[in-house]
Specification:
The complex is a heterodimer.
Chain A lengths: L8 H14 E2 L7 H18 L7 H18 L1 H11 L4 H4 L8 H22 L5 E5 L2 E3 L3 E7 L12 E7 L2 E8 L7 E6 L7 E8 L6 E8 L1
Parallel strand pairs in A: 3-9
Antiparallel strand pairs in A: 2-4, 4-7, 5-6, 5-8, 8-9
Helix pairs in contact in A: 4-6
Chain B lengths: L2 H9 L3 H23 L2 H17 L10 H20 L8 E2 L12 H20 L2 H12 L4 H8 L3 H19 L7
The chains are: A alpha+beta, B mainly alpha.
Chain lengths: 221, 183
Amino acid sequence: MPDNWRFSEDEVERDLRDLGARIEYPPTPDLAHTVRLRLDAETQVHRVRRWPRFISPRWAVAAAALVVISIVALSPTVHSGLFVSDQQTGSEAARPAAPGSDQPEDRSKQEAGVGSQAGEGEATGCPFPSIEIEPARVSRGEKLRLRGHDFASGCEGTARGIKLYLRQGGESWKLATVDADRRLTFDIRVRLPTAARPGPAWVRATTSTSEPIEKRVVVLR
Amino acid sequence: MEEAKLAERARDGDTAAYERLVRMHQAVAFRAAYLVTGDAPEAEDATQEAFVKAYRALDRFRPGAPFRPWLLAIVTNEARNRRRSMGRRAGLDLRVAAEDQTVSAPVSPEAAVVASERREELLFRLGELSESDRVVISYRYFLELSEEETATTLGCARGTVKSRLSRALARLRKAMGKEEDAG
């Protein structure tokens, strides 16, 4: 390294220290409370998920088995089957079945099929997040209320670090970052960016685990 | 309450103690993240996420060890990940405060202008260095971390910090130019 650089290492070090004392950083956000709220919410979710002491897994399995047996026993299909076999001497049993038809069996199959599909839909469906905006038409620089529902993290737990943006054309403005509460909701008031143009825009919510959600808002003059 | 006690209570699940710990370190943590990302909202997100991750990792924090460099290592890692996901090179969008006559001996207006220009140039050249050079210089001189703290924060040995810093300063001096270029 040649020695004829404009500044010696000592000079550069001194200047850097001097510079460090004069740098104006953006204001430090108050994160302490937000971090605590996140951690408290997280702890509560874990507590809710834990088995209460009086419900051991063995009892839970027994209860679940009882529920399944009850559903099967009380389902219309089984009922109708039982009644048909009980009432074989009645008018329906006496009536000859149409050729090639196994009506009661078909009907019970159909009912069972529909029933199981509905059951599957309910059992496997994760809550789909949504957002509400109030008002839906708002002037630039004015506040709007954003409420989110069903912001879960992978079907369980609360979604954290939900980023809210306003998107218009090719531009976007960050509005806020929020965490869902125990009910998987959030409720926040933000100011519409003054740089937005009059016309339609979209409030976009993104999380790390789900597809972005968007809701239309109209920017007024 | 001292830092070690707060860290111990936080490790036992006391979020109020951890809130105090966060408040003690949030300024330096945010500045460290800002020096890496060059973007205030990203730095805020990175810092918040790092504090949450640090809480979850408190079991791995050695009791009695200094909390600040351990935390800054997590902050730096988070900020670097975010900067990478931003998909662009982070700038060093720093502003220098105006000359404050109360902190230094009175200087002539000409000398003040020269000093101000030199600081601006230094900042500009620093922004042109690689991320690795910028981070080691800015952590050491702007955040005023000791060599030991810088080593813990960057996850390397103290000797490595010394050599990296020396090379980074040499590149900075080179970027500032030679004596004949000064005029």
